[in-house]
Amino acid sequence: AQLLNPVDGHEVERLLADEKVVAQQKLDGNRVLCHLFDGEVLPTNRAGQKTAAPQRVLDGLTHLPMGTVVDGELVRHAGEEIYWLFDVLEFAGEDVSAEPYHARFSRLVDELEPGLVEPVRVLETAFGARQKRALYERLQASSAEGIVFKHKDAPWSAGRPSSRRQRSIGRTWR
Question: CB burial class (10 A; 0-12, 13-18, 19+) of residue 60?
């Protein structure tokens, strides 16, 4: 699981305009990767250690293909825990972590989202300057935790993003 680098205010405008970057809401929850194998769902933390997740969340993933690994954030909202997915690392036994982010996200939306059951959802992702600007303004107006920018061609990697090929950058306005 990748950590975030903070963004200076002057960089936000550049990132909003950059067509090679996508944006998502920064959530305030627990990062959880879920591995589907042998008919079960195994939730792990960033270090790959088994962690807890509500049974309803695990049940919401059981219709996905075995051999799939998804990355997301478990967030408590209005007394309910929601598991927001934003990446897929393995699909039906195939390692897709080296694919560009936009391809992995498309796979998440097109091939996995139809099999999800509440309280598992795919996190809204803004592509293009107009969508990113609208998301940014909406998140800022609602005093959300922040916004995350990801390079749409970046592969998945653990740890902090490299300066050469940044994948995730966080911006918090609180």
Answer: buried
Pick the closest to residue 74 from 119, 110, 126 (CA basis).
Answer: 119
The residue with tokens 């039906």 is: 92
| Residue 41 confidence (pLDDT) | 97
The H-assigned helical ranges of the chain are: 9-17, 55-59, 101-107, 129-141
The maximal CA–CA distance of the chain, rounded, in angstroms, is: 48
Axis crossing angle, helix 129-141 with helix 9-17, rounded to the nearest 10: 140
Least confidently predicted of 9-13, 95-99, 155-159, 170-174: 170-174
What whole-number percentage of the chain has pLDDT above 90? 76
Which of 61, 120, 123, 118 is closest to 87 using CA atoms? 123
Q: What is the pLDDT of residues 106-137, one digit of tens each?
A: 999 999 999 999 999 999 999 999 999 999 99
Task: Kindly tell me the burial class for residue 16, based on how many C-beta atoms sit within 10 Å of its own C-beta (0-12, 13-18, 19 or more).
Answer: buried
Look-up: residue for tokens 């950590």? Answer: 3
Both tokens assigned to 157: 């990697």
Whether the per-residue pLDDT at 173 is higher than 70: the answer is: no
Nearest to 147 by CA among 2, 16, 14, 10: 16
Exposed, middle or buried: residue 48 (CB in 10 Å: 0-12, 13-18, 19+)? exposed
